[in-house]
Specification:
The complex is a heterodimer of chains A (about 650) and B (about 325). Chain A is an all-alpha fold and about 650 residues long. Among the domains of chain A are: about 140-310, MetI-like fold (Orthogonal Bundle), CATH 1.10.3720; about 450-643, MetI-like fold. Chain A has helices at about 1-25, 30-35, 45-55, 60-85, 95-110, 115-130, 130-160, 165-180, 180-195, 195-220, 225-235, 240-250, 250-270, 280-290, 295-320, 330-335, 335-355, 370-410, 410-445, 450-475, 480-495, 500-510, 515-535, 540-550, 555-585, 590, 595-605, 610-640. In chain A, helix 7 packs antiparallel against helix 8 (about 165-180) and helix 19 (about 410-445) crosses helix 28 (about 610-640). A 6-stranded mixed sheet of chain B has the order 6-7-8-3-9-10, with helices on both faces. In chain B, about 40% of the residues are buried. Chain B is α/β, with parallel strands linked by helices and about 325 residues long. The chains are: A mainly alpha (about 650), B alpha/beta (about 325). The interface of A and B includes residues 234, 248, 251 and 327 of A.
Chain lengths: ~650, ~325
């Protein structure tokens, strides 16, 4: 306790200083209000110099081009198989009916009828809606990128597990990589590879490796000691131990890693439309830009269905527990699923041969629900326009603009002191220094105003998300059934690529700041709700019983027992919420914001690596600082509660 | 008696950042205790004889599990030496060590240590697979072992589908698959509930009777130790307090600590007539009793027998000495010492 009191004292002092700076802003020298010239360092030029060196002098270009040629060749093979692009091996396209029954059988074998219908149904929907080619363009990148990421992640994960020194080097790199916004990855790739499908595939590979490394490492560390000892006593060599005991025992974690890789791939491949990746993402981007709501909803549904299918299939695979089969002498019975699948495929091929409809649904045969959706949306929008208009007016004039002006009004020295105060209150000198260092670097990057706009958008969105999400979660956590349903919705919503969230908000609010904030709020509320429910549901029942027996009312139990106990878990949710918001704010830039994201888009279109990476790091530092503070706080709370 | 299979000389194991240096410091100042260092095994001297069953008994944290891992070099020792069949195992190269484990050692673990993704049959065949035996031979052998432990018909099950007792049977079958000479069992029945534990002990005694192996058995349960052991080594704080037969431990505990354990024990159930035998002073008279029987077995006879001295015979029927009835009754009624 003594320590945290001392922390509080210093923190108050720093806070007072910050307030002092704000009060006397008018008399402050300009150099204390905005970062002075001498502080702003030309990071972008340095990065550009490094890249120029890598590219030209080191000949890294040749290496990346060679690798990208391999990727391109693979992309062509899958493109041929999935949608009949005329490249080697010239076998495709595989009829959509065959792919749909394969998806159905995969779902059925992994989990049962329901998953079979979801995954089979997804592909039927795609085919019937005439989106086959776009969806397959998207899917072909995932099919190529995911195996690369998984292999790379597995190898790096094993290396990190073998060598603690390597792990120590790798860990901060992974942390930064996981908080860099999507666009920051695209710019260097565009420099080295150019634009188009193979650049899209490569950026997808790079983007989706980190979670695989993390999960592999986690899985290998979690293998019970006795399993290893049993392996050693069985006379296993190190290699045998790794391949036959450790990795198979870590199967679940590794497969969860595969699941995350695939979901990251999907999120990235949709966004890669910004660097000329054809497919669903590009279509959606075009439709959104021309405000064709009905058609973009159709594409949105497809992306959502694909996300759900891929997530459920890989999760079912990861969580599947081995079950013995009743011994059966007949080969046919033992391999019945395989036989049924082969039969269904044969049927699909046969149908496709005689009825081209089952090979490919042509544009003119395709169904569309865009018309009715547009009509419906027109009605809805007409109905709620007064509300949205008022909301828009209210938010912009009374919340967003005043908040933005306030953030921009703050002298940068006051912000740094404020952060130091928060850091000191939570984790003492070290945390204070970390906070100041991260934001000091942002100040030195020369993008202070833009960064403050990003900060303001994230702050306001997270606050609104908390105001809406936490009561919802408290209500949801009342009964287990309700909690289960809300958690299912949250889990599903979390699998959607962030891009999807823009469709409904553009529909409702049009293209402006309110739409961005609304999208970020929804995206940020999901983890908030999820972790709050989990935290509240996992409070030990004895504690609640003890409180009940002490005569506490429901509100008292909530305030004095459940919320304090759930706080560490809720903080994890808040942390994710901030991360998600940062990502979303940056993505939403193309709707038109004036923050770091907009500059990043400009850097992307002018392929300015230095600028792009500096902006990316600025965003990453915001994320890392929040992560540090919240993790510290959550750990302190946990220790105080003895969990 | 017979040669020793495993010999420990001054074995020490220290966990910490620089164990070797800490050991040197300890030699100079035995009372030293430094933060960050755990002295799990201290100066242990032990001989495990061929064919015997040595039970290492101690409460949790006494270093018994660490000791047994030193014997198989699952853990590298800090000081002293461990010799297995005449070879100092610290000097073995990695491949020699693997060879030794593949051919001579088997081990059973407290929480079974089964590979979750492999069926029962594949788990039992695992050590044979490591040796590179072909599939049909190793499966045939694995089936044989599963039949031996009473799991025939469960070959295709996965560990998670079995009860704890059944899982440990798989662990036992696996450890026996390579026909090891030395069999380590690390608290094999501690994770099981009492009824199953009893059943597994009987099963274990049955298996033990069928083969002639050197067995090192770890337990924290003194009753279990008494029931199974040829000799018991009692450990406390990394030291072996006493290593002797159950009879001797019960009759003559070497330290306070051992005495505390034995005080609650019904000695009559542990002590055999044989361990009370004194040389004959006069020619034997009347019906002799067998040396392997416990005092408890003979309680009725001891109370009603009128003789002062009762002759004792060994398992070949030869008279080896006699027992004073009063001595035996003292043990029976708890008056010894």
């Amino acid at each position: 306790m003594g320590r945290s009191e001392r922390y509080a004292g210093t923190a108050k002092l720093l806070l007072a200083l910050a307030v002092g700076l704000m009060l006397f802003k008018t008399v402050l020298p300009q150099g204390m209000i905005r970062p002075p010239e001498w502080l702003v360092l030309p990071f972008a030029d340095w990065i550009n110099a490094v890249f120029a060196f890598l590219q030209n002098d080191l000949g890294l270009m040749a290496v990346t081009r060679a690798f990208s040629d391999v990727v391109e060749w693979l992309l062509n093979v899958t493109a041929n198989l999935l949608y009949g692009k005329s490249r080697w091996p010239n076998l495709g396209p595989i009829p959509w009916s065959v792919i749909a029954v394969t998806a159905f059988m995969a779902g059925y074998a992994l989990k049962g009828w329901r998953l079979g219908l979801i995954s089979g149904g997804t592909f039927v929907w795609i085919a019937l809606m005439g989106q086959w080619k776009w969806a397959m363009e998207t899917l072909s990148v995932i099919v190529v990128a995911a195996p690369f990421s998984v292999t790379l992640g597995l190898v790096l994960g094993v290396l990190a597990w073998r060598s603690p020194r390597f792990e120590r080097v790798l860990n901060p790199i992974l942390s930064i990589a996981q908080s860099l916004p999507h666009f920051a990855y695209m710019i260097p790739v565009v420099v080295f590879i150019g634009v188009g499908p193979k650049a899209g595939a490569i950026v997808t590979i790079i983007f989706s490796v980190p979670p695989m490394i993390r999960m592999t490492l986690l899985g290998l560390k979690k293998v019970p000691e006795e399993v290893i000892e049993a392996g050693k006593m069985s006379g296993a060599t190190r290699w045998q131990l790794l391949t036959r005991a450790r990795i198979p025992t870590a199967r679940s974690e590794i497969l969860i890693g595969v699941n995350q890789v695939i979901m990251q791939c999907l999120a990235m491949v949709v966004l890669a439309s910004f660097i000329g990746m054809p497919g669903l993402g590009q279509k959606l981007l075009q439709l959104l830009q021309s405000l064709k709501i009905g058609l973009s909803v159709e594409i949105g549904v497809t992306i959502v269905l694909l996300a759900v299918t891929l997530d459920r299939l890989t999760k079912a695979w990861a969580l599947r527990l081995p079950v013995h089969e009743a011994a059966s002498p007949s080969w046919l019975i033992r391999n019945r699923l395989l036989v049924i699948w082969l039969a269904l495929c044969a049927l699909g091929f046969g149908l496709a041969h005689f009825f081209p409809y089952f090979l490919e649904v042509e544009r003119k045969q395709a169904l569309s629900v865009a018309g009715p959706i547009d009509a419906l949306m027109d009605q809805v929008i007409r109905l709620i326009t007064p509300v949205t208009l008022w909301l828009r007016w209210f938010l912009i004039t009374w919340v967003l603009i005043p908040m933005r002006d306030a953030y921009l009004w703050l002298p940068f020295t006051a912000v740094l002191l404020l952060l130091a105060a928060v850091g000191w209150a939570i984790g003492g000198l070290r945390s204070a220094l970390i906070c100041v260092a991260y934001f000091g670097l942002i100040a030195a990057s020369g993008w202070w105003d833009r960064a403050m706009i990003t900060v303001y958008m994230v702050c306001i969105s997270v606050v609104i998300a908390a105001i809406l999400g936490i009561p919802l979660a408290i209500w949801g956590a009342r009964t287990p059934i309700r909690a289960g349903r809300i958690l299912l919705v949250c889990d599903t919503a979390q699998t959607f690529p962030s891009f999807i969230y823009l469709i409904p908000v553009i529909m409702l609010f049009g293209v402006n700041d309110v739409a961005v904030v609304a999208a970020v709020v929804v995206f940020a509320a999901v983890p908030m709700v999820r972790y709050t429910i989990e935290g509240l549901r996992n409070v030990p029942p004895e504690m609640i019983e003890a409180a009940d027996m002490s005569g506490a009312t429901r509100a008292q139990v909530l305030w004095h027992v459940r919320l304090p106990m759930a706080l560490p878990t809720m903080l994890v949710g808040a942390n994710q919420s901030v991360m998600f918001s940062l990502f979303m704010v940056i993505i939403a830039a193309f709707i038109g914001t004036q923050d770091l994201g907009q500059e990043m888009q400009r850097a992307l279109s002018s392929t300015d690596v230095g600028k792009g990476l500096v902006l990316g790091f600025a965003v990453a530092f915001m994320g890392l600082m929040t992560d540090h503070l919240i993790t510290r706080w959550s750990e302190t709370r946990k220790r105080a509660l003895g969990i | 008696m017979t040669e020793s299979v495993i010999t420990c000389r001054n074995v020490s194991k220290i966990f910490g950042p620089n164990p070797a240096q800490h050991l040197v410091q300890l030699k100079a100042d035995p009372g030293l205790s430094q933060a960050g260092y755990v002295h799990a095994v201290r100066d242990v001297n032990l001989d495990v004889r061929r064919g015997e069953m040595l039970v290492v008994m101690g409460l949790s944290g006494s270093g018994k599990s660490t000791l047994v891992r030193c014997l198989s070099r699952l853990i590298e020792i800090t000081g002293g030496s461990v010799t297995v069949e005449g070879r100092d195992i610290a000097t073995l190269s990695e491949s020699e060590l693997i060879d030794l484990r593949r051919s001579k050692m088997g081990m059973v673990f407290q929480s079974f240590g089964l590979l979750p993704h492999r069926s029962v049959l594949e788990n039992v065949a695992f050590p044979l697979e490591m040796r590179g035996q072909d599939r049909s031979t190793r499966y045939a052998r694995a089936r044989e072992m599963l039949e031996l432990v009473g799991l025939k018909g469960r070959e295709d099950y996965f560990p998670r589908e079995l009860s704890g007792g059944q899982q440990q049977r798989v662990g036992i079958a696996r450890s026996l698959a390579v026909e090891p000479d030395i069999w380590f069992l690390d608290e094999p029945f501690s994770a099981l509930d009492p009824l199953i534990r009893r059943e597994m002990q009987d099963e274990f005694l049955r298996l033990k009777g069928m083969m002639n192996k050197t067995i090192i058995f770890i337990t924290h349960d003194f009753d279990e130790a008494l029931r199974l052991a040829d000799r018991i080594a009692i450990m406390k704080d990394g030291r072996v307090e006493q290593c002797d037969t159950p009879d001797q431990i019960v009759l003559h505990p070497a330290t306070e600590y051992v005495a505390k354990f034995t005080s609650e024990i019904d000695r009559a159930r542990v002590v055999h007539i044989g361990s009370l035998v004194a040389p004959l002073t006069a020619p034997a008279t009347g019906e002799p009793v067998a040396a392997y029987r416990t005092i408890r077995d003979l309680a009725r006879q001891l109370i009603s027998d009128p003789r002062v001295e009762i002759p004792v015979i060994n398992d070949k029927g030869a008279v080896i000495g006699s027992v004073l009835r009063q001595t035996a009754l003292d043990v029976l009624l708890g008056d010894a010492h």
